[in-house]
Amino acid sequence: MTPENAVGGRDGERDGRQDRLRAKVESEKVRRRWMSRRRRRPLVVAEAVSAVLFAGGIRLLAGGENRLVGLLVVVVTGGLLAVVGTQIGLASRFRSDYHDLDERQRAEQARARLLGDRVTNVALAVAFVAALLLSGLTDEVDMAAVPPAAFLLLALNVFFPAAWLTWTQPAESDDEPGEEEF
Prior knowledge:
Blueprint: H1 3-25, H2 28-33, H3 37-63, H4 67-92, H5 103-134, H6 146-168
Helix pairs in contact: 3-4, 3-6, 4-6, 5-6
């Protein structure tokens, strides 16, 4: 097998996986399930609550007390984060590959990413100022608080764009795309 065939085989395999993923995201069943805002918004709330609970579980693990409870919270909410995060991605149709999106979808996703970066920057600045004020400007910092804060900032940066699109996109119509009434 030549290197060109090997690369072509992997690219063909990757294209097949992308096609299956695209078919799942664009399927009629998924579109109908997440068509209305009323059904999408609880996903965003569940993701936010799960992230905060997950950070609390990390705090329990890092703090030393109630480690078993912390482990249970981390495992349960971690699974919930994975499931709900996947559903948010399906509901918002938020993808990392831009090549198959139209200009409007690209602009919406770019705007959501930019807003996510700005929100993360503000949250990081607020966390820094709060840490300075709460520590009394001393060298001592409760190290058990660092992992949950780091997780929440990372989760905010990762989850915010898709959650924003899920929350703000208008409800889809039941009509097929491309069918417009004049």
